[in-house]
Amino acid sequence: MFKKLRIKASTKRSAIQDIKGSAMNWLQVKLIVAVADVEIIANVLEELGSGGVQISDDPQFDSDISAGQEAVIAFLPEEIDQQDFLSQLQQRIQLLLTENLFETTPRLLTKTVSESNWTNTWQDHYQPVRVTRYVTVVPEWIDYSTQREDEILVKLNPGKSFGTGMHPTTQLAISCLELTMRGNERVFDVGTGSGILSIVADKFGAQSIIATELDEAALGFTQENFELNQVEQKIKLLAGSLLSPIDTQADLIVANMLPEALIPLLPQLDQHLLPNGQVILTGIIKAQATKIKAEIQAQGFLIDLTLHSEQWVCYRLKRQSESV
Ligand SMILES: C[S@@+](CC[C@H](N)C(=O)[O-])C[C@H]1O[C@@H](n2cnc3c(N)ncnc32)[C@H](O)[C@@H]1O
């Protein structure tokens, strides 16, 4: 029994077209984990560019799991480099194990499956989602009209990139943008993925936006999403790591990335932030919040707003020297 399906971009636009049309086989990647480890492993799968992530939680229906365990399941289309995906997945798990982030060691199972059993569910669940008071995220292929005058629509096409609006960290970042932005800000969006936070920042009245992304394979989808929302003129998309591709300063920097990317970002913030600038950081799992907080303070920032969702935390920062 699948208790929930987290909607994540599939791997390629052509894969989406295959989902909609002809039959194909997929590699099912199934990780048997302790219940407490579900979020982190689902997040890793999504960051690596998996398809829809299902979570199976009932041993009656799933003989691979026993009490206290759940299975996090992703499907990889034939056309992506599955071996590369699996090797990256194993490396990430190893890294997280060395940081003692799992309650138990995840068990990896793989098998080839036909698409028919899951793609309908995948599409059925990828529906418009009202993320905040104002923002609704809508899959490109769904006809949706605003339900309220002040509703802000963000149209997205799943691609290899992360950021469908369904993940708690994306939702935290959007909520924090909504709480923070007053209009006319220069915004940097680090690790833009699908581009969702840049699009939202534009809708909230940003003066200009620069988005960076390490994963060059995702950039085509990001650009398509900018065009879909007619914000491509406003947002400059740069390939590269963290803030390194940028040599200017912003009023607001937003980043939704795992701590392994956030920690090296912290020393880059000060030089990229205008006076009275603010920073929104999420992607932080509660177990790592203390470590991140210490790093934030060590870099001369303080946290003036904290938001939580499920096991995730979002911090808004400003310089300690500008705290009054
Ligand atoms: C969790 S996703 C967030 C995507 C989107 N911003 C959102 O909020 O949904 C993190 C993104 O950061 C990118 N990323 C990871 N490390 C990075 C780095 N060092 N520099 C730039 N982007 C990075 C990943 O490729 C991924 O697209």
Q: Architecture of the largest domain, CATH level 2?
A: 3-Layer(aba) Sandwich
Question: Quick one: overall form?
Answer: globular
Number of helices: 9
Radius of gyration: 19 Å
Strand content: 25-35%
**Arithmetic mean of pLDDT:** 85
Q: Give the biggest beta sheet.
A: 7 strands, mixed
- How would you describe the oligomerization state of the chains in this entry? single chain
The chain-level structural class is alpha/beta
Q: Distance between termini?
A: 53 Å
Bound small molecules, which ones?
A: S-adenosylmethionine
> What's the order of the H and E elements?
EHEHEEHEHEEEHEHEHEEHEHEE
DSSP strand count: 15
Notes on the structure:
With 324 residues, the chain is an alpha/beta fold. It folds into two domains: 2-123, Alpha-Beta Plaits (2-Layer Sandwich); 169-322, Rossmann fold. The chain has nine helices and 15 strands. It has helices spanning 13-20, 38-47, 82-98, 119-125, 168-180, 196-203, 219-228, 259-269, 289-298, and strands at residues 2-6, 25-34, 53-56, 69-77, 107-114, 129-130, 135-139, 152-156, 186-190, 208-213, 235-239, 250-256, 273-285, 301-309, 312-319. The strands form three sheets. Strands 11-10-9-12-13-15-14 form a seven-stranded mixed beta sheet, sandwiched between helices. A five-stranded antiparallel beta sheet has the order 1-3-4-2-5, sandwiched between helices. α7 links the parallel β10 and β11. Mean pLDDT is 85; it is low at 1-22 and 118-122. Bound molecules: S-adenosylmethionine (SAM). S-adenosylmethionine binds next to α5, α6 and β10.
